Amino acid sequence: MLFLFVAPVLAWAQGNNFIEVSGHIIDKENKQSLTGINVLIKGTVNGVATDSQGKFTLKTKAKYPFTLVFSAVGFETQEFEVSSPNSVLNIELVTQTLLGKEVVVTASRVEENILKSPVAIEKLDIRAIRESPAPSFYDALENVKGVQMTTSSITFKIPNTRGFNIPNNFRFVQLVDGIDMQAATLGVPLGNAIGPTELDIASVEITPGAASALYGMNAINGMANLLTKSPFLYQGLSFYQKTGINHVGGTGRELSNLTETAFRYAKAFNNKFAFKVNFSYLRGTDWLADTKTNQNPNNLNTANPSFPELNADADNPAYDAWNKYGDDSGSNAVTLTGLTIPGHSGSQSIIVRRTGYWEKDVVKPTVDNLKFDASLHYRLGDNAELSYGYRIGKMDGVFQRGNKIQLDNVVVQNHKLELKGSNYFVRTYVSLENTGDSYNIKPLVDNLDITSGGTNSVWGAKYKTALQNALNNSASLADALRIGRTAADASRVVPGTPAFEELKNTIIAINNWDHKAVVGGDAPATGGAWLSQKSHTYHADGQLDLSHKTKVFNLLVGADARIYEVVPDGNNFVDFKRPVADRNKPLPDGSFGDNVYYKKFGAFAQVTKTFFEEKLKLFGSLRLDYNPEFTAKLNPRVAAVYTLAQKHNFRVSFQNGYRFPALFEAISFVNNGNIRRVGGLSYINEGLNYLDNSYTLNSINSFNAAVNKDVAGGLTTNAAALKNRSLLEVTNLSPTRPERINSFEFGYKSVLLDNKLVLDIDAYVNQYNGFLGQVEVAVPYATGLSSQVKVGSDEAVVAMVQSNRNTQQTRYRVYTNAKNQYNNYGSSLGLTYNFYRQFTIAGNVNYNDISENKSKDVFVTGFNTPNWATNISFGNREIVKNLGFNVLWKWQQSFLWESPLVNGQVPAFHTFDAQVTYRIPQNKATIKLGGTNIFNKNYVQYAGGPTLGGLYYVAVTFDGLLVK
After folding, report:
1. In this structure, what is the dihedral angle of CA atoms 952, 958, 959, 962, given to the nearest 10 degrees?
2. What is the pLDDT of residue 17?
3. Angular region, 870: left φ>0, alpha ψ -120 to 50, beta rest
4. How far apart (Å, rounded) are the C-alpha atoms in residues 186 and 884?
5. What confidence tens digit (pLDDT) does each residue in 873-892 have?
6. Burial of 229 (0-12, 13-18, 19+ CB in 10 A)
7. How far apart are CA 50 and CA 297, in angstroms?
8. Are 737 and 682 a contacting pair, CB within 8 Å?
């Protein structure tokens, strides 16, 4: 029951009279006062929340009649019209039992019922998050229909939808109150690391599939929109404490504690001014990536297929484990030539890899994550609210892109200023990124090996001598190879020793990844691995709803601008105006040149119109995006929603979207283990010529396998090289252009069986053109790298022999577009059924696949998505008074993972999660006892990723304290 009394009260504020509305709200079922009920005047930003006695007072300049909207999690939203002074309204506020009542804003950038959204959209509100068995709201996203989660670290999780998954996901946007959570130079979204705390999250909306027609160039795989609580509507002090354990067996680390502490305080004054403060701190022992799967079996041409006695992984000298680094083919393969091997005639060659180091030897086991944010809000009357917000996050963890990165003391800050009204907003923000003490694992292990074990040529010579001696003394080939490795590694620093730690700490403090013994000059004697990156992102956007002007149809317009400013560090990002030879050398002032800028601008318009008594709603939008490095691109979207018999909602949409290369894909210039990784913009190629004067790495590997075979047959190396020149493939790359997607989607949503069953089905077909990825190439040089030679010439062919790797080749890993077109498709089904009191069973099943192309491309695109995945949950939010539970089972099919770093089959897995929640209303407290993967069935989510085991926790929350 809600009792509302409305009376005009004269209140003096800047010379104007106000109407003061007061009321008292109680629950119909138990007659208790309801705290925290949101009371807003419809069509304005003016609203308050009820106090601890269920009372509220609201001042307004609105003219009669006006409508009050009452809403809260767990209760049906209701509207009431106030038509005159001295009105007494006796109305009821009841528990929400009907499904499909959620309101979303992400799909069309305006509020609409979730059933009538023009595209697939999923929503987690506060209650859904509380009832999830996941340990955090971000973990709960993994159970949403259509979402594939990639966990790189306890502190670092990336969602994806509809295929082409990578741990640093450029194609899936994460917003927090309109701020893009992308860390500009790292190229990864950090929504869980620097985003909202558990206490401040209001809801999460996820749009699977392309959203670039309304949200800009990067949202072509989907987006997550994280919305936080208003300090006007959610006041008081809240406290959260979670304690848990992980590594309970089989994950490679000892049993460990996990703790997270958070608080939130918000206060409003006279419904004009409000502020909020949030703080959280998490600390734990990270998951460990320690899979020993070999991705270079002996039957491949990058190993030694001519020697079947080396087929066992334990005997394979070219063994390349998922989570061992410094043993890859790019710069760690050494060909031992001129060997005499019993049982094999002629001069023989063996490919061996440097020994390298396991990930567990070079990463930090302990991680922490600190978050703080604060905001000030001021209402300029009923129709405008001005706010300033500050957010800072510090995090540790490990993530995977082209190589593994140890994040250490990464700090990202946001400053936001926003003015919003009932039909508009204007917003600007700046994001500041500093990678702190982070380091790249690949150059770290390379430089550990080179400094303590010698360059490839030195190490290879020691290996060859000991190997041949052992063979001469009748050792088997496998045993002789082990003897050779032991001799070559004799001076190598050993993990866990003081010498290892000292050398490691020296290397990770140096921001120059070259090694003097390899490149000479003024390169550091030990090489470096420090990842020192700083950037500033400046963004402004605005939106205006002109529907009240157009009358005949609804019109929404908006625009945005973004400028990335990168501080050159000489190793990852450089000033391209400087000569190539000087780009990694500091200037007298200590800088590495002028800051580098990357810009993009956009604008959109959306028209919507209803027909046939609002049974049919049509959507049409057009967005223009411009980046000075490319031609302007148009992103259209058309959609229709038809409601049949008030319950059956059918939708269909088509959109065309583009994605500009991300900052790292566009302008990076990284020396990564003696391989220069370069952005795809055309001017970076000037003087380097990797686009049109190079050979592909895949063809070089095939070429060298054939050369080694012919050398064993009696040819000289040069003669064998010239004989097999046709195996070398000239790269012939074009400068990078924006990625393009055409996306078609069909869907159906309905609430059936007397509002007890929600049915949600969607299907999609995507067509990608110009898919962005990396290809490794080699530019041929004369001996000593003195000058380039033309591909196709005899000298260029001989330069590609493996023994000339360091003296006649410069390797590049280039961001470029695929030459083929890629088509993927899929469908999802979601069901939620309420039966017998408050018992609920819910689940979803998801299918994704890609059409196979007949011709090979310049690089592997990496669909990296299981064909089938599903989850089913069963629960009751109040099985007895104040006690609820939820159990969730999820399963994922095995699938192939492909990337520049790791390739292999990811095994299928299934897990159980569970939670029990007990509420103590008189103390405003909730106790949640839960666990994920409760039977500790260890699994990995992607090749090279960490092993995930059981995590068990208890969380205590006090919410809404100090509310008078």
Report:
1. -160
2. 60
3. beta
4. 41
5. 999 988 999 999 999 999 99
6. buried
7. 66
8. no
Q: Is the pLDDT of residue 6 over 50?
A: no
Query: Parallel, antiparallel, or unpaired for β 172-176 and 222-228?
Result: parallel
- Give the percent of the chain with pLDDT over 70: 94
Token readout for 785 is 């790298």
Q: Are strands 122-125 and 895-897 parallel, antiparallel or unpaired?
A: unpaired
CA–CA distances in Å: residue 482 to residues 329, 350, 796: 19, 13, 35
> CA 747, CA 768: separation in Å to the nearest integer?
21
| pLDDT exceeds cutoff 80 at 259 | yes
Query: Tokens 């973990």 label which residue?
Result: 139
**Residue of 700, 698, 858 lying closest to 770 (CA atoms):** 858
Residue among 391, 156, 140 nearest 278 (CA):
391
Q: Which helix or strand (DSSP H or E) is residue 7 part of? A: strand 2-7
- Cα 308 to Cα 312, 344, 463, 539, distances in angstroms: 9, 12, 21, 59
Report yes or no: 352 and 339 within 8 Å, Cβ to Cβ: no
Distance CA 120, CA 10 (A): 48
At residue 951, what are phi and psi to the nearest 5 degrees?
A: -135, 125
- Half-sphere exposure of residue 739: CA atoms within 13 angstroms, side-chain side: 31
Residue from 280, 229, 245, 226 nearest 135 by CA? 245
Of 66, 48, 131, nearest in space to 839 by CA: 131
Helix, strand, or coil (residue 349): strand
User: Any idea which residue has 């899929």 for tokens?
Assistant: 826
Extended beta strands in 469-572, E state: 534-545, 554-567
Of the candidates 271, 268, 236, the residue with the CA atom closest to the CA atom of residue 379: 271
Burial of residue 713 (CB within 10 Å: 0-12, 13-18, 19+) is exposed
Rounded-to-integer distance, Cα 919 and Cα 940, Å? 35
Angle, to 10 degrees, between the axis of helix 441-453 and the axis of helix 498-507? 120
Report the half-sphere exposure of 288 (CA within 13 A, side-chain side): 25
Give CA separation, 522 vs 279, 584, 585, in Å: 45, 10, 9
CB 180 within 8 A of CB 910: no
Q: Is 819 exposed, middle or buried (0-12, 13-18, 19+ CB in 10 A)?
A: middle
CA nearest neighbour of 444 among 404, 399, 400: 404
Q: Which of 104, 109, 119, 113 is nearest to 746 (CA)?
A: 119
The percent helix, strand, coil of the chain (3-state, each to 5) is 15, 45, 40
- Give the residue among 234, 201, 497, 542 at the shortest CA–CA distance from 371: 201
What pLDDT was estimated at residue 82? Answer: 80
Can you tell me the distance from the alpha carbon of 530 to that of 440, in angstroms, rounded to the nearest whole number?
A: 7
802-846: pLDDT as tens digits: 889 888 999 999 999 999 999 999 999 999 999 887 899 999 999
Give every strand in the sheet of 87-91, ordered side by side.
Answer: 55-60, 19-25, 2-7, 87-91
Query: What is d(CA 261, CA 256) in angstroms, rounded to the nearest whole number?
Result: 17
SS3 assignment, position 566: strand
Sign, CA torsion 436/441/446/448: positive
Give the residue with greater pLDDT, 631 vs 111.
631
Token duo for residue 626: 């411009």
Task: Give me the chain's average pLDDT, please.
Answer: 90
Distance CA 529, CA 448 (A): 10
Q: What's the pLDDT tens digit per position in 518-559?
A: 888 889 999 999 999 999 999 999 999 999 899 899 999 999
Provide the whole-model pTM: 0.92
How confident is the model at residue 630, as a pLDDT?
A: 95
- In this prediction, residue 59 carries a pLDDT of 79
Residue 201: which pLDDT band, with cuts at 50, 70 and 90? very high
As given in the structure block, the two tokens for residue 329 are 């083919």
Three-state DSSP at 838 gives: coil
Instruction: Give the bridge partners for 817, in sequence order.
Output: 772
